[in-house]
Design brief:
single chain; five-stranded parallel beta sheet; globular; binds uridine-diphosphate-N-acetylglucosamine; binds fructose -6-phosphate; EC 2.6.1.16; glutamine amidotransferase; aminotransferase; transferase
């Protein structure tokens, strides 16, 4: 049931304060005199020691689920000090990539039924790796087939394009990073700050949803375009890839997410006065680098749309931009959850304005059960 909404996707975008609350429910320990602040992932408790001792962690998934894993990779590496490698399930299988008993393989899938991810799971299992699932669907093949895991509890997602599952996947994988790192004294303050951020998250998501009208306005200025680029880095490289995926699959507009650090190695040649470029430049350790990316794009008269933290527009783009999206600030590693929401709204409005099917994009299926 769509209730007051025109489309399931719109409903699912708006559900995110609630779906995130459900994802986090019972899993955050706010901390008091008797208990230390921490996370509780029932399904992982018995396996955390093995995960911490693994030689490598592999994140495996497809599409949006792969992007969610990519968004949390920096934090998992920071808190676990275990190297994390990223694998798109089909490519992992094409290469028959090496994987060992000392590895932990984390399979991320909303449906829990994606053929490539499921086959990658069988392959990793047969090589003796510890297999962990991050799934939304209780009883799904990936949920049943993994040694252990976490259900994201985002609720049923009907729109073919994944929205609320993405933000819940990031929230769960953030908790996974906290759980793996929970015995390190040196990162305790950092972990506690992230837990405070998770407790604030539903409220901040509510806040960012207020950008809806502004994103509709922006969509109206972009609806006739052929192409849209998104530049991100660090935690928000995933935001650039995921924003571009939403625009291309829904609005049927060419869109590409680009790692900003790669700009000078090719993409800069595309920049002119007409091609719209979204630069994600919210506050984190990479934001001074994004500032210089913005300057270089401006020097080439790029048509910039800058996403930055509330109040940062004057610092991040002193020479102005064709459009500024100011988002609420949260802990660096949680910022991808906030930043994707205006881009989900942008993709939604672009699709409606261009007259395409929002909930059933052409040629796509919700659950991809064939290779
Ligand atoms: C579980 C219950 C939840 C209950 C809570 C109370 C289920 C599905 N969940 O939640 O209803 O309120 O205890 O403490 O009954 N798993 C995998 N692979 C996956 C996902 C999960 O193997 O991809 C396994 C987990 O290791 C765990 C079980 O499935 O053994 C349930 O996982 P999850 O629902 O995340 O556990 P809890 O949050 O503890
Ligand atoms: C994009 C989208 C797809 C899925 C992909 C994996 O909006 O929904 O890219 O993310 O097909 O699906 P799951 O997560 O079910 O394995």
């Amino acid at each position: 049931k769509k209730g007051n909404y025109d489309h399931f996707m719109q409903k699912e975008i708006y559900e995110q304060p609630e779906s995130l609350r459900t994802t986090l429910r019972g899993r955050l320990i706010p901390g008091d005199e008797s208990k230390v602040k921490g996370v509780l992932l029932g399904g992982l408790k018995a396996h955390l020691r093995t995960i911490r001792r693994s030689r490598r962690i592999l994140f495996i998934g497809c599409g949006t689920s792969f992007h969610a894993a990519l968004a949390t990779r920096p934090l998992v590496e920071e808190l676990s000090e275990v190297p994390v490698t990223m694998e798109i399930a089909s490519d992992f299988l094409d290469r028959r990539a090496p994987i060992y008993r000392e590895d932990t393989a984390v399979f991320v899938s909303q449906s829990g039924e994606t053929a490539d991810t499921l086959q990658a799971l069988e392959y990793a299992k047969s090589h003796g790796a510890l297999c962990v699932g991050i799934t939304n669907t209780v009883g799904s093949a990936i949920s049943r087939g993994t040694d252990c895991g976490v259900h994201i509890n985002a609720g049923c997602e009907i729109g073919v394009a994944s929205t609320k599952a993405y933000t819940s996947q990031i929230a769960v994988m953030t908790m996974l990073a906290l759980a793996i790192g929970e015995d390190a004294i040196s990162t305790r303050a950092r972990r506690e700050a992230i837990i405070d951020g998770l407790l604030d998250l539903p409220g901040v998501v509510k806040e960012v949803l207020k950008l809806d009208e502004k994103m509709k306005e922006l969509a109206a200025t972009l609806m006739e375009e052929q192409s849209l680029l998104l530049f991100g880095r660090g935690y928000n490289y995933a935001t650039a890839l995921e924003g571009a995926l939403k625009v291309k699959e829904l609005a049927l507009m060419h869109s590409e997410g680009i790692l900003a650090g790669e700009m000078k190695h090719g993409p800069l040649a595309l920049v002119d006065e007409t091609l719209p470029i979204i630069v994600i430049a919210t506050r984190d350790s990479t934001c001074s680098k994004q500032q210089s990316v913005i300057q270089q794009l401006q020097a080439r008269k790029g048509r910039l749309i800058v996403m930055c933290a509330k109040g940062d527009a004057a610092i991040m783009c002193p020479n102005g931009a064709s459009y500024v999206i100011e988002v609420p600030h949260i802990q660096d590693c949680l910022q991808p959850i906030i930043n994707i929401i205006p881009l989900q709204l942008l993709a939604y409005h672009l699709t409606v304005l261009r007259g395409f099917n929002v909930d059933q994009p052409r040629n796509l299926a919700k659950s991809v059960t064939t290779e």
